Amino acid sequence: IIEDVDGYMWFGTSEGINRYDGHTIKIYALLPKTGIFAGDLIRDIVQDAEKNLWILRRDYLHCIYYETEKIATYELSIIADRKIGLSATKDKGVLLLSGKSILKYNATINTPDTLFHNTNSRFSSITRGKNGRIYIGKENGSLVICDERSKPIDEVFVAPQSNILNLCSDEDENLWVVTENKGIWKFSSNKQLEQI
């Protein structure tokens, strides 16, 4: 579920993606002719800086262009690793978190760029902070902090030996971290770490 910048609510369902404007629901069938969508759940939805909506499924990434409502589809089956999540970039496009790699997809270019590859632990979650930074959780309990251009600038161990399950940035630029077996943590904008 996501609320876009125009206030529309978007819901991922087994039938496609639905947009609710406060009165009616419009259904976008992502691959209606092939039937590929049936039973393939939506894993993530984000909106980029150009207001395009990106939808992640197991083997597909879709972009609904804001101006035309046309849908572009990128096949992800060539990526052997599991696809975990999306984060909007500063410019057109999204970051795709996939196991040990981060790929950047652009709304105008069909080929993704590999931003970096991680060798010591698998990625597990991703979010974009209000400050423009990208935060990436790893299965070993560490948090990778990237600049606005998605380049790693720091790594902090939040909960060693505990998978980071989810991340969320609040209005005060605090990062909330949910771990598998070490509870909830707050990483403040001044880099203070506090277990809740």
- Content-based structural category: mainly beta
Shape: globular
Strand fraction? over 45%
Count of individual helical segments: 0
Q: Give the end-to-end Cα distance, rounded to a whole number of Å.
A: 26 Å
Q: Spell out the helices and strands N to C.
A: EEEEEEEEEEEEEEEEEEEE
Q: Which strand order do you get reading across the main beta sheet?
A: 1-2-3-4
Helix-residue proportion:
under 10%
Count of individual beta strands: 20
User: Which stretches are low in confidence, meaning pLDDT under 50 for 5 or more residues running?
Assistant: none
Summarize the structure.
By secondary structure, the chain is an all-beta fold. The protein contains no helices and 20 strands. Strands 1-2-3-4 form a four-stranded antiparallel sheet, with no helix packed on it. Strands 5-6-7-8 form a four-stranded antiparallel sheet, with no helix packed on it. Strands 9-10-11-12 form a four-stranded antiparallel sheet, with no helix packed on it.
